[in-house]
Amino acid sequence: MKLTELVRTECIRVGLTVDDKAMALCEIAALAKQSKVLKKLPEEAILEALQERETLGATAFGQGVAIPHCRMEGVRDFVVGLLTVPDGVEFEAEDGKKVHLLVFIIAPKESRNTHIRLLSAVSQAFEDSSVVQDMIAAPDSEQLQSLFLQAARQDVSERVSEHRNLVQVFVQDENVFREIIEVLSGLENISLNVFEGKSGSAYLAETSLYAEFSKNGDIPSRCIVAMVERNLSNEVIRRIETITGSLFECTGVMVTIQKLAYSAGSLEM
User: CB-hemisphere CA count at 13 Å for 14?
Assistant: First the structure.
């Protein structure tokens, strides 16, 4: 599945003026309704689904960008659209900045994993702030669509490969855990799971013989387990080290990578 197949030309607008987030969502619902994919759904239902998703947490991405999205019953395919708001609109972004570019996704209810991969592909378009500014300044919908598709990752399908490695990232540092998850989820064709745990001394401290070590027994630990294409293993390390610095000099994060002799089946992300 290619992103070019999911971006709907009729769902792209430039130069909108909206007073607030509520009005922005109304504009998105109206624009999404223009797609043939959603023609049988009431505009009010689309708006309600978008609003419900926002109650879980603001979809503002930072750098003046938001990615409002939702999954809906009765939707048979993905609808991706874009809007620019030159004057900006408050969207509860963590960085406190107004949003000037909105990329929305309306997804089938049952396509959870593809939806996650699509979000990752879309968010890649915003890694370069200068490209984001070019999109915001686009004079027409054709230019906006072209800039977006050039910057985003095109392939959002799930491909199966026998040439994969098993990656395990053990993290004791809460401050970097979410950052590592975010940078790894952007990798193509990656499967991620997280397991909660604690250090071995926490278990030893439960016996009287090792009770003196109880003060060190409360260190939380998480293990990120991923399967990646073998040729992306070095990229995994590079991305992690952009956060931690050299792993050989790092405390609180440990990475192991192993060749897989066999793997079958799949898990929900």
Answer: 15
Same-domain status, 147 and 14 = yes
| DSSP single-letter state for residue 99 | E
Catalytic residue positions, numbered: 69
**Residue 177 domain-assigned (yes or no):** yes
DSSP-H helix ranges across the chain = 3-6, 21-32, 43-55, 112-123, 129-136, 141-151, 174-185, 200-204, 233-244
Residue 265, domain member (yes or no): no
Q: What is the pLDDT of residues 92-132, one digit of tens each?
A: 998 899 999 999 999 999 888 788 889 988 988 998 999 99
What is the rounded distance in angstroms from the CA atom of residue 252 to the CA atom of residue 216? 14
Residue 269 lies in a domain: no
Parent domain of 37? 3-151
What's this model's pTM, rounded to 2 decimal places? 0.67
In 3D space, the residue among 188, 233, 14 whose CA is nearest the CA of residue 255 turns out to be 233
